[in-house]
Design goal:
The protein is an alpha+beta fold. It is built from 16 helices and 45 strands. The strands form twelve sheets. Strands 29-28-27-26-25-32-31-30 form an eight-stranded parallel sheet. It starts with a strand and ends in a 13-residue tail after the last helix. The protein binds beta-D-mannopyranose. The site of beta-D-mannopyranose has 11 residues, from loops.
């Protein structure tokens, strides 16, 4: 649509009492304004969060002055693309609008209040917390996973605190604001509905116009152009549809299946009253839910979803610009991901996110923003939900990457298992949204796109929503209560959440936490752990696998290793069940601040060891050893379009590298197939001192018979050679899960791989993005004697070793 005339950049913000004043940035947010003015400490450092609760309880007034010269146009609108959240807008002292939904945009006809010459615009934000508390009182309590009343306001829920995020209740003009002058008519909505059948793509361009003067209904010409084909139509009323046909279209594919051709669609109203431009792609996408399945099918081909859950990448979403999205999504691609789930406690992300997903071939699973709570279906919330859903379905539906809409995160599960029914005592909880309102809006505005009521959901309110035999499930008992090997007890059809915690990278911890010395339970570390009993669960998770850590560096390394192994084990097991299981969405890709969490990439954007384990587990060709029928089997999963044919060798080895028994065989895996080969290398004579290694070409899978703490591994020894940015490690013994930590030398130094296991005589070349000198901090699992001698509780960096 026609761009806005932005307002001047000179804004100010002040508290209602006038005590706090600062220059303001628009788009922006009160926390970032106060931070820039030096009025608050950085909310992400140490326990500063605790001193900032007042910000969320204060009324904030944003003001600017601008001059206006009058206009020839019939209408002058104030367009607010995003206000966070409960706002009153005044122009020259005249109230022109009120808002209460961060997930919507607003347009106000402000001509009556505008003056030629100088104008004063003020946007006053009431405390979102107080507003939500008041609605809670009016509408009646609804159970939720956290104490703050986030379910009583249409605002990014995790802003109120989550089990990985601080409570920083924001306010501000978070998306662009400006004046829009226009005459005659404008394009209020454009929805290209794309279908592909028998080699023909049809783009049904649904158009909705708004007339400047409602009474004037003259016929309007409308033109749609795509792939060099233009179709012209006449619009006698305010809505209409144009159809463009493209023969033999180049199809859009998710990454790993083909290219992502995108085509500019231009819709013009009249000669040039208004134009809409967007990129579309030609493909079909559906979710096959027959017989309990949950399989995403693109252009008729079933796709194993190698997914990650996405949370808002910052507590202050205004800081997430296109470059930041691009960096994070490139990291997702590097990890082999082909699907992003935009989780329901966050946002409908901004256009850049979906544009990039289109370009990169990342499928998008979009939750409607409802999470872990019961929601009132009464006014004023119901109308807000409907308005925001209509707007965002319209905004996002042109994207070829959008695979499905999902009603909510865990709310149906909450009703079944979290004691809600009793507490609700008959009050509404959101069922009407998930089973009626939202699917109705999707069917109307985005016909053909899949809608699924919840994550998890069983397909029926009569079957437990998390029943592994039915569609998508979340697996949380593992992190909360059980050893991670229990992932293998599940035979799910699709896992849309499962996760395991690990600490942030060292450089991120050092930037955010000033504890001296750092310890797993030092005050800052505890503060940057938001999960109930999170540290206890980390310790409980380590216990079956490792001896208790000796100090911070040991704890930091081992908990990161455990996180990586847990998720790798889960993904490999679930992939080995393909096509019965058709997807894994790991909880979670990213963080919104520096914290110990389930993420693969920490709050400063650094890759945790899990990231590298995930990349291996999501590799197009996966070799994995799995328990089958009382023995062990090799499962080879081929997620490519070429057959995978290779000689393979499976060997039972002593931990000193001696081959005890080996067998060779031919591996042949069909495109997009998986094969299971029972292993015939015999039972271990000494499970503590043996392992299995299976190799097929470049790929290798290892199997240890016992947890590390019960293994009798030799003390790992290796030679390290540093050549500029490369670090070559040559193992003299078995060296397990070798990690190098260049960020301990320089915060910007990152290595290209982590957690490499070397057999005696093998070597590996790591590459760091910069030279860090000869002392490379590193660690491996069977490195205990040297670690414990140098690893005191604080973190002077462990010395590197050079040859
Ligand atoms: C699920 C998610 C999030 C949460 C995560 C870890 O419930 O949907 O709400 O952060 O588990 O507990």
């Amino acid at each position: 649509m026609t761009p806005l005339h932005p307002l001047p950049e000179s804004w100010t913000v002040r508290s209602a009492s006038g005590d706090v004043r600062a220059p303001a940035t628009v788009p922006g947010c009160v926390h970032t304004d106060l931070l820039a003015a030096g009025l608050i400490p950085d909310p992400y450092l140490d326990d500063n969060e605790t001193r900032l609760a007042w910000v969320g309880r204060t009324e904030w007034r944003y003001e600017t002055e601008f001059s206006w010269d009058g206009t020839e146009h019939e209408r002058t609108d104030l367009v607010c693309e995003g206000l966070d959240t409960v706002a009153e807008i005044e122009l020259n002292g005249v109230r022109v609008g009120e808002t209460a939904n961060m997930h919507r945009s607003y347009r106000f006809d402000v001509r009556p209040a505008l003056r030629t010459g100088s104008n004063r615009l003020a946007v006053t934000f009431r405390s979102a917390l107080e507003y939500a508390e008041r609605l809670k009182e009016e509408l009646g309590e609804r159970p939720s996973a956290y104490t703050e009343p986030y379910n009583f306001i249409r605002k990014m829920a995790c802003n109120f605190g989550w089990d990985w995020g601080p409570t920083l209740v924001t306010a501000g003009i978070w998306r662009p604001i400006g004046l829009h002058e226009w005459s005659g008519a404008r394009l209020a909505a454009v929805r290209p509905v794309v279908t592909v059948e028998d080699g023909v793509a049809r783009v049904a361009v649904h158009v909705e116009v708004e007339r400047a003067v409602k009474a004037v209904q003259e016929e309007l010409r409308i033109t749609a152009t795509v792939c060099g084909r233009s179709v012209v139509g006449a619009l006698p009323s305010d809505t209409g549809v144009l159809e463009v046909e493209i023969h033999q279209p180049e199809l859009w594919w998710p990454r790993g299946y083909g290219e992502q051709p995108l085509h500019e669609l231009t819709v013009t109203l009249g000669d040039d009253l208004d134009t809409w431009q967007g990129k579309i792609g030609f493909r079909t996408v559906e979710v096959d839910t027959a017989d309990g399945a949950f399989t995403i099918v693109v252009n008729g081909r079933p796709v194993f979803a190698k997914g990650v859950n996405w949370i808002p990448d910052d507590c202050f979403p205004v800081r997430i610009d296109r470059a930041r999205y691009a960096e994070r999504l490139a990291q997702a691609c590097e990890a082999g991901v082909n699907l992003m789930r935009v989780w329901g406690g966050g946002l409908y992300e901004s256009d850049d996110f979906y544009d990039l997903c289109d370009e990169l071939g990342l499928l998008v699973w979009q939750d409607f923003p409802f999470a872990c709570a019961a929601y009132s279906e009464e006014e004023p919330l119901r109308s807000e939900v409907e308005a925001e859903a209509r707007e965002n379905v319209t905004r996002l539906m042109p994207h070829p990457s959008l695979a499905l809409w999902c009603g909510n995160n865990e709310n149906i599960w909450g009703l079944f298992d979290w004691g809600w029914r009793e507490r609700l005592a008959g009050r509404t909880w959101g069922e009407g949204y998930y089973l009626d309102l939202l699917p109705g809006i999707v069917a109307e505005l985005d016909p053909g796109r899949a809608y699924w009521p919840g994550s998890p959901y069983s397909g029926s309110m009569d079957v437990h929503p998390n029943d592994p035999g039915h569609h998508n499930i979340h697996i949380w008992d593992v992190w909360n209560q059980r050893d991670y090997t229990a992932y293998r007890e599940y035979r799910p059809r699709f896992v849309s959440e499962f996760g395991f915690q690990g600490p942030a990278t060292y450089a991120t911890i050092k930037r955010a936490i000033s504890d001296e010395p750092l310890a797993p339970d030092s005050p800052g570390m505890r503060f940057h752990q938001k999960a109930v009993d999170g540290d206890l669960k980390l310790a409980a998770g380590l216990k079956p696998h490792f001896a208790p850590p000796a100090g911070f560096a040991d704890w930091h390394y081992l908990t990161q290793v455990n996180q990586a192994r847990a998720i790798q084990l889960g993904v490999e097991h679930f992939r080995s069940l393909w096509p019965h299981c058709a997807g894994t969405i790991v909880w979670q890709l990213n963080d919104c601040w520096p914290v110990t969490s389930w993420s693969a990439i920490d709050g400063d954007g650094r890759r945790k060891p899990l990231f590298h384990a995930l990349r291996r587990a999501y590799a197009d060709r996966l070799l994995t050893v799995q328990p089958r029928d009382g023995g062990l089997a090799l499962v080879a999963v081929n997620d490519t379009d070429e057959p995978w044919v290779s000689g393979a060798v499976a060997a039972r080895l002593g931990v000193d590298g001696t081959e005890l028994r080996a067998e060779s065989f031919e591996l042949e895996v069909a495109p997009r197939g998986a094969v299971t080969v029972p292993l015939g290398v015999g039972e271990p004579a000494d499970p503590a001192r043996e392992l299995i290694a299976v190799r097929a070409g470049e790929r290798r899978a290892l199997w240890f018979f016992l947890p590390d703490k019960d293994l009798d591994l030799p003390e790992g020894r290796c030679t390290v050679t540093v050549e500029g940015r490369d670090v070559i490690v040559s193992a003299h013994t078995l060296v397990r899960d070798l990690a190098i930590f260049p960020d301990r030398v320089h915060p910007d130094a990152e290595v290209d791989d982590q957690l490499i296991t070397l057999l005696p005589g093998e070597s590996h070349r790591f590459t760091i993005n910069r030279e860090i000198g000869a002392d490379v901090p590193m660690r491996w699992v069977n490195d205990r004697s040297s670690i414990s001698s140098r690893d005191t509780t604080s973190l002077p960096d462990p010395p590197g070793r050079s040859a």
